Amino acid sequence: MTGLSVLLQSGTLKRALQPYCVGGAFGRLLDAEAERLGTAEVQAFETEGLIGLGAAPAALSYLFHRIEGRLDGRPTLLIIDEGWLALDDPTFGAQLREWLKTLRKKNASVVFATQSLADIETSAIAPAIVESCPTRIFLPNERAIEPQITAIYRRFGLNDRQIEILSRATPKRDYYCQSRRGNRLFELGLGEIALAFCAASAKSDQAAIAEIMQTRGRLGFANAWLRRRRIDWAADLLEQRLTGEVTATSDQLPLAEAAQ
Fold first, then answer.
1. 166 and 141 Cβ atoms separated by less than 8 Å
2. pLDDT tens figures, 116-125
3. 115 Cβ contact partners less than 8 Å away, ≥ 6 residues apart
4. How far is Cα 78 from Cα 67, in angstroms, rounded to an integer?
5. I need a labelling partner for 117 at 20 to 30 A (CA). Which of 4, 106, 233, 241 fits?
6. 244: left (phi over 0), alpha (psi -120 to 50) or beta
7. Using alpha carbons only, how large is the chain's radius of gyration in Å?
8. 3-class DSSP state for residue 110?
């Protein structure tokens, strides 16, 4: 960006690019000698602190362009977690609206996640989201039967009986699935090993994960994390299998099965 700015003759364009160049307010986001977006199969982008800044439209446009360029027909899942504030951004919202209409042709799906249905309802692209997402998973909510909240659930297609089920369901255990095939309350039923890895979402967990990754690396992470969560029997079994001390027989369960 800085090199381009130097070559430009237009003062107007130079001033427009200045915030995104080295030394500018947003130079760290978009200006570099080489792209470092990466080519890993799984990538995550943290937008906290970006939405609301003047750089948001440019940064989001760049990310959309790079992500869309990688949609080559292979199965792809785009997960937008707690990104509803971004929907207020015209550029972000317009691109999502377009993606919802065209991603199926590219063998890609979008998952939206939020703790509040009101965030969706007040979004400018709420109709497109509701129409294009036939499968919805609702979390338990003891306040679901309150009149104002009930009205929101009804706009998402739930009847009074389904709303009552949500109000009586157990948090962090039960989930209510609404799809073309029908509606059903289900329990995820993860074992302690799966919970140790899949439910580590607290800030303290993330700090511990970063610490272990720094000290033990990727290869030693699973063993160290299991011990951190006090699941020593699983860590011992994993260590034995990795060192070849266990001879697999028909009466020995794999680690994943042992967790059930």
1. yes
2. 787 777 777 7
3. 82, 139
4. 9
5. 106
6. left
7. 23
8. strand
| Residue 162 scores a pLDDT above 70 | yes
* d(C-alpha 153, C-alpha 133), whole Å: 15
Tokens 């982008």 belong to 45
Q: Evaluate whether 179 touches 166 at the Cβ level (below 8 Å).
A: no
For 137, residues 6+ apart whose C-beta sits below 8 A from its C-beta are 175, 176, 177, 178
Distances (CA, A) of 176 to 118, 137, 158, 166, 195: 18, 6, 11, 7, 19
**Least confident interval from 20-29, 34-43, 90-99, 134-143:** 90-99
Give 180's DSSP letter. Answer: T
Element (H, E) at 108: strand 108-113
The position carrying tokens 């039960």 is: 174
Nearest 5°: the CA angle 30, 32, 36 is 85
Find the angle CA(143)-CA(111)-CA(96) to the nearest 5 degrees: 110
pLDDT tens digits, one per residue of 56-69? 777 877 888 888 88
Q: Distance between CA atoms of 138 and 115, rounded to whole angstroms?
A: 10
Give the distance from CA 180 to its chain's centroid. Answer: 24
